[in-house]
């Protein structure tokens, strides 16, 4: 699935659409957010989290590396791996304890995890174009395929 997004509001709106269409089966869900600096990864995450009811300010976790957003039936882990020097540093983040039912991961810069992260249900690839941003969503699990189907319906 591909979309052309014009501005922050459209990018946040698409993030909200993703959140509202997510499967609510309680299983661990993982979304990789890929793209260069300034491509809109955090903006998409901001819209996603806002649609789930997060009212706190959502910033890129570039310096904290991990932010947790706890809701009654779901905890969202928003992490940014840009500053990792290698996949071995993932262990220091304690991500393993959050790879459980009731969690949803939004992972910026997942390629820095060197294949040690859980398999994503969806990968959202964003890119800066003249006057817009592009978004491509690809599923890699049956849950991701169902999610993508609900998102595009």
Report on this structure.
It is a single chain. This protein has 153 residues and is α/β, with parallel strands linked by helices. It has a single domain (2-148), classed as P-loop containing nucleotide triphosphate hydrolases (Rossmann fold, 3-Layer(aba) Sandwich). The chain has four helices and seven strands. The protein has helices at 8-20, 41-51, 90-93, 142-152; strands at residues 2-5, 29-34, 66-70, 75-80, 103-108, 122-129, 132-139. It has a seven-stranded mixed β-sheet. Helix 3 (90-93) links the parallel strand 4 (75-80) and strand 5. Helix 1 (8-20) crosses helix 2 (41-51). The radius of gyration is 14 Å and the shape is globular. The model has no long low-confidence stretch (mean pLDDT 88).
Number of extended strands: 7
CATH topology-level name:
Rossmann fold
Question: Number of helix segments?
Answer: 4
N/C terminus separation: 11 Å
What's the arrangement of strands in the largest beta sheet?
Answer: 1-7-6-2-5-4-3
Highest CATH level, the class: Alpha Beta
The count of domains is 1
The ordered string of helix (H) and strand (E) elements is: EHEHEEHEEEH
> Rg, please?
14 Å
Q: Helix and strand layout, with pairings?
A:
Layout (H helix, E strand, L loop, with lengths): L1 E4 L2 H13 L8 E6 L6 H11 L14 E5 L4 E6 L9 H4 L9 E6 L13 E8 L2 E8 L2 H11 L1
Parallel strand pairs: 2-5, 2-6, 4-5
Antiparallel strand pairs: 1-7, 3-4, 6-7
Q: What is shown here, in short?
A:
Helix 1 packs across helix 2. The protein has helices spanning 8-20, 41-51, 90-93, 142-152, and strands at 2-5, 29-34, 66-70, 75-80, 103-108, 122-129, 132-139. By secondary structure, it is α/β, with parallel strands linked by helices.
């Amino acid at each position: 699935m591909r979309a052309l997004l014009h501005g922050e509001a459209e990018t946040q709106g698409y993030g909200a659409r993703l959140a509202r269409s997510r499967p609510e089966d309680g299983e661990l869900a993982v979304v990789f957010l890929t793209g260069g600096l300034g491509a809109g990864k955090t903006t998409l995450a901001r819209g996603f989290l806002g649609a789930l009811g997060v009212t706190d300010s959502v910033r890129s976790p570039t310096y904290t590396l991990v932010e947790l957003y706890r809701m009654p039936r779901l905890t969202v882990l928003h992490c940014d791996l840009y500053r990792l020097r290698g996949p071995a540093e993932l262990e220091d983040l304690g991500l393993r304890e959050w790879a459980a039912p009731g969690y949803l991961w939004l992972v910026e810069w997942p390629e820095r995890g060197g294949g040690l992260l859980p398999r994503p249900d969806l990968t959202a690839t964003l890119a800066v174009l003249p006057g817009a941003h592009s978004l491509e969503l690809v599923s890699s699990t049956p849950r991701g395929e169902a999610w993508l189907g609900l998102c595009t319906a």
